[in-house]
């Protein structure tokens, strides 16, 4: 992958501190996702214990928890469970998704998921769904313009939901990019050299480096493999520091 480890790759104390602080900022969102994951897993296990397949109305039991977390977590703009195709007996695809509006009111996301009419019927190729499904781990997708939910530039964090060893879908939460940047840009700007954050695919999640704008790609190293090792590295003059506990890499010029 072209990433080197060794003495030159040892992160400085300010870099380690910033990587840890970024991890802490995003960990709060993952706690919301983890709560949804736990509730969904418990619900699907109860349904399976009744020797039947879940149906869409079963997922209504998730709503009180989703509403409470959206009311509590100001940085989270949307949250829910996205079912794997074929999970439900009465619907080929389903998003049990709720959003907090500018007025503070929590509303459902209502989508037409008919494959004959809707461009959103197949969500399985989007990173927020595909990465947890394929890796079995938490993921950060974006930033991207979220035409599905808010038409805002957003990040989506997600984790796989598995029941009886089978992938059932993902628990996820949306964060407006402007809110994430408000939390992490002061940290990046405090470093003595230009720095930005990338996800496992190298997409820039936030940047204090004019050469790497949010949403662009940082090409070269395999960031996913670097996150697997959880060790700092270097590539082409860039210093790469995994953020503690979350799938983001701090990249310092």
TrEMBL record:
It holds the Pfam family MCP-like_PDC_1. This is Cache domain-containing protein. It comes from Streptomyces lavenduligriseus. The lineage of its organism: Bacteria, Bacillati, Actinomycetota, Actinomycetes, Kitasatosporales.
